[in-house]
Amino acid sequence: MGERLENSGSLLCSGEMLIDFTPVKGMADTYTANPGGAPANVAVSAARNGIKAGFLGKMGNDDFGRLLVNTLKKDNVEILVPKLTDEANTTLAFVTLSEDGDRSFTFVRKPGADLLLNPDDTEKIDFSKWDMVHAGSVSQSGVPEKDAVLKVLKKAKEAGKLVSFDINYRDKIWGREECAREVEKLIDYVDLLKISDEELSFVGGEENIPKYMNEHGITVIVLTRGGEGATVFLKAGDPEPIKTDISSVKVTVTDTTGAGDAYWGGFLSSLLRQGVRKTSDITMEKAELAGHYGAVSGALCVAKPGGIPALPSIGEIEEMLKERDCSDGSRFFGKN
User: Fold this and answer.
1) SS3 at position 274
2) What's the confidence (pLDDT) of residue 253?
3) DSSP string, 78-118
4) Which of 30, 85, 210, 255 is the most core-located residue (most Cβ within 10 A)?
């Protein structure tokens, strides 16, 4: 798994990797341990799409931490902090699923190992190796992790790399206002922003998205609405961003854990495979293709249980694209 494709680009993800304890269908009060964590999910998703992927985060020196390391190795994701910490256990999240497959989380993280990522851990990163850097708001909920990830995004921006960010608000971790304050500290470094319909307040509502993009220099915002599809907003030089709607892919939902990460991993992978290396490379045609690609990736994910175990491979995505509206899938992959 995670076989790299030539000239496909590279993506470094920074933040949390943890264990999702997911309910076992048909067995009350029984859980199975699945590797997860939003930035790690995106890294693995990218790797399964042929992108060179790396992960920067801390994991505990315990059985779960070793499971996570082996997960990354299996998908050929480069581990930038290979040493496991003895200072805290690997972070855990217990997932509750509703009848329609939607999920909520309870975290064991006081602290969890992910919070111990230190700014010193970022010193040896060679940003010339990476075309894009991605993170999410959970990393900003505690120190020293928030300082480390903020440093990574700042250095990536200074190096001329694309910066991606996912609001990914979790109410069991912190309050909405506190999260918004931390996001505000880093948003000016962000080129590509993912938000869900539940997170619109962070940008002042959907009607305020164009103004928000102009104020913070954001090139792309993708607003996801679960089964209702998504909207891609692109700042393409004109005063007002342009936008397009992306339809969802209808499947039978088993578990929505990791769905947004599968979408975003697919979206970013498609942009990189289409040759996007800087914001001026992004056209609405490329962004729209990435949106459709992400939609298929997310749909395939929710049809299976678990986080990382459910993330689809490039072959699975390509096959569904062929079945839908493209005879060979080539326009979604930047092939000649």
Assistant:
1) coil
2) 87
3) EES--SPBSSSPPPEEEEEE-TTS-EEEEEE-TT-GGGG--
4) 255
